[in-house]
Design brief:
The protein has two helices and eight strands. The chain is an alpha+beta fold.
């Protein structure tokens, strides 16, 4: 499913997607990487964030991923019902994750990595990649 929006072709309703990777920092220390991409056909890179532990990274993803802007919601995130306290991140995450499943989409925490369609015709790989941060 693709969506044409503001002159770009998006892979689905989300304007951005996240990928998780294992990483090695410039001193050779193991860490975790969260990469953000614009969710168009070629997945242009937006930013990297690094975390010391997988637990920190997963907690962060579950806190921010429900707030990704959606094309269908005029670039605003999924509307969370008023019955869910917005500060209750696990409940917000649960609601958002159900929406993903209903849309036949996946979260960054599902062990899949978004890739351009020329890399895999499905648009994802069922594995995590590794990132090495080079000294500049």
């Amino acid at each position: 499913m693709t969506i044409k929006f503001e002159g770009e072709i998006y892979r689905d309703d989300r304007m951005f997607v996240l990928n998780i990777a294992t990483a090695t920092d410039s001193e050779g220390k193991a860490c975790w990487n969260l990469a953000t991409y614009r969710n168009t056909l070629t997945l242009p890179f937006i930013r990297n964030d690094f975390f010391d532990t997988k637990e920190e990274l997963l907690k962060y993803v579950r806190k921010i991923e429900p707030y990704v802007p959606l094309i269908s919601n005029n670039k605003k995130p999924l509307e969370i019902p008023e019955t869910i306290d917005p500060d209750n991140h696990p409940k917000v995450w649960q609601y958002f994750n159900k929406w993903l499943i209903d849309q036949k989409l996946f979260s960054a925490v599902d062990g899949k990595t978004h890739v351009p369609y020329y890399v895999d015709k499905r648009g994802f790989r069922e594995k995590l990649f590794h990132v090495t941060i080079e000294k500049v």
